[in-house]
Amino acid sequence: MKKAGEKIMEKEISILNCGGRVMKKLFVFITALSLGLFFSCSKEDAVTGEPETQKGKVVFRATTEPATKTALEQDGSSYKVVWQNGDRITVVDGASNVGVYSTTSTTTRADFTFESGTEATTPNYKAFYPATMYNSGTPTLPATQNYAEGNISGSPMYSESGTESLAFKNICGIIRLNVSTTLSGKKVRKIILSADQGMSGAITNAATLAADGYVATVSGTAGVTLDCGESGVSIGSTATPFHFSVPANTYTGLEITVITTDGLSQTRTLKSGKSIVVGRSSLAGISLSFNDIMLVIDLTESNDEVTIPAGVNAKLIGSNINRSVIIEGGGSTVYLDNATMSKINVQDDAIIELTGTNAINSSYNNPIDIKEGSTVTFRGDGTINLYAYYCSGAIACENNNANIVIEGGTLNLVAGAGAIHAISAGGLTISGGTVSTSGNIYAEKDVTISGGEVNAIGGAQGIYVNGGDLLITGGTIVAEQTEGLSWGSGPNALVAGIVVNTKDGGGAEGGNLTISGGTVNAIGHIGPGIGSVWTRSGWSYSSWTKSIVISGGTVTASTEASDFGAIHYSGFGNATRCDVITITEGITKLTLIKGATAAKMFSSGDVSATFTVDGKDMTGYLTDPASVDWTFDHIQRTVSTTTNENDTWTFTKK
Length: 654
Prior knowledge:
Blueprint: H1 4-16, H2 20-48, E1 53-54, E2 57-58, E3 60-64, E4 73-75, E5 78-80, E6 88-92, E7 98-102, E8 109-117, E9 125-129, E10 140-141, E11 144-148, E12 151-152, E13 157-161, E14 165-170, E15 173-180, E16 187-194, E17 201-202, E18 224-227, E19 233-234, E20 240-246, E21 249-252, E22 255-260, E23 265-269, E24 275-278, E25 283-289, E26 306-308, E27 314-319, E28 324-327, E29 332-341, E30 343-346, E31 350-355, E32 357-363, E33 368-370, E34 375-380, E35 383-389, E36 393-397, E37 403-406, E38 410-415, E39 421-425, E40 427-430, E41 434-438, E42 441-443, E43 447-449, E44 453-457, E45 463-465, E46 470-472, E47 476-480, E48 512-523, E49 530-531, E50 545-559, E51 567-568, E52 578-583, E53 589-594, E54 602-603, E55 610-613, E56 616-617, E57 647-652
Parallel strand pairs: 3-14, 11-18, 15-25, 26-28, 27-29, 28-30, 29-31, 29-32, 30-33, 31-34, 32-35, 33-36, 34-37, 35-38, 36-39, 37-40, 38-41, 39-42, 40-43, 41-44, 42-45, 43-46, 44-47, 46-48, 47-48, 48-50, 49-51, 50-52, 50-53, 51-54, 52-55
Antiparallel strand pairs: 1-2, 3-8, 4-5, 6-7, 6-9, 7-8, 9-13, 10-17, 11-12, 13-14, 15-20, 16-18, 16-19, 16-22, 21-24, 22-23, 53-57, 55-56
């Protein structure tokens, strides 16, 4: 009996003496054995071994630093750092060869084999992940990233090495946006981030990434969009995380826009003075409750009336003079972005934000109608042109019992044929923007002007307050009657708290006119520049302007009327009266101008009132101030000596 060793030796000899068929079987056996040995140690090699060379081709072994967030696979309170099957890198060698390499591994260390381009075989090596970041020789952070559940998809990394072992490091940080909502059935289609600092674009320090501590920088202010796919990502009361890869930086002016699959959107802006700090290879978290929504509405799509539900924000775009809009309000914001329509009906509190140039042209309807009890605020940096015909006004409040607030924007309001007013309001507050009217500004409650520019030109009055107070503390105001008016039109350009000119004896108690700042130019043609409503003898005298106080700012008043002065502080024919007119030394400049036919600078009509300048009673001799010798410390008089030329009285501090 032969020994086992001898038997094996004989078999080997016989195989060697055999023909090609036996040799082929031996080759298959040895290959299978070799593969078996490779697979048995492949897991170990992926962790600790050296890169393999397959058929003369270089295989790059890639590792990541422990903090690198190539993937955020949660494991308890920590995050595993793993490569993903299908990951690709671009490798550039010392001979400028550029090759794309891919892996099928899902491990902390992965082998990347050549896929396309030109093989990189000459050290030193520069490697970029993901492969697309290399961008034809211009390393670039992409403007669009793809959503990955619980992950950051393709967080940019970079490696430099003299061997085929590549130790990748993150060149960016991560912003995690935790989005929740109380709305049902909402799915996020995409999220857009932008700031005063760039988040995407060409890497300006690509050649020195390693020397710069692997911190990528980009120029400009381009933002980044996270694409969540057509089907979207569901959000609910429990926050859903969305991850963005952005350069390490301190971000100011951060703006976040969330857009849902059903076309709603919300934009949030970081408060002024606040910032978000993102470090390299670190994570900064932001939480956002998506409860404010917006309807991206094109008015050209149909002629059907548009209804914006209460509490829903909306943007109106496109031009359609046949389409009207109902804003249910509830505090919602409606953006007019270069839009044209036939009418806006506001039913509750709302904000109208103006962008670009917008227009409403209505016949027999108020272009903007505001329901009683509501407050509508205009703001923005755009323009709206309103044309009113045969209606109450370009902007009209129901029963003059709603409030208009103007904080910004440019409002051009035309009261055309048959239109009663340009603005017909309850209360009116103007703190910014520009308001220009053809036709008067009328209000039945308090009016406050603290800023902005107001050009109220046209109609019997420029600004007419019936029953409330008019307070001007700032801004630039021109209030002018339409030139060429007849007596029946009413006389005053700038008035406060006066009755409507009717013969029925009705009306409300008057209010106070106070100018304590700003620049005011009040121009009367058939009546005074500043004063009480003039009414004919026998008309109602139950109402009056309680007081006219000029205590600050720069004020000019003028008249061309022979029966009135530039400032008229009492009634005519015992019809209305002003209890007191006061001018204090706080005034910067007061200029009174009477036209060639005007008789007086001040006039009181048939009823006297108390008139003081810096506390001194002027009542006795200011009916015709041409005879008065002005000797007060803070008042100066300049009178033209040329016949038929305007006399000008200027009150200035000496």
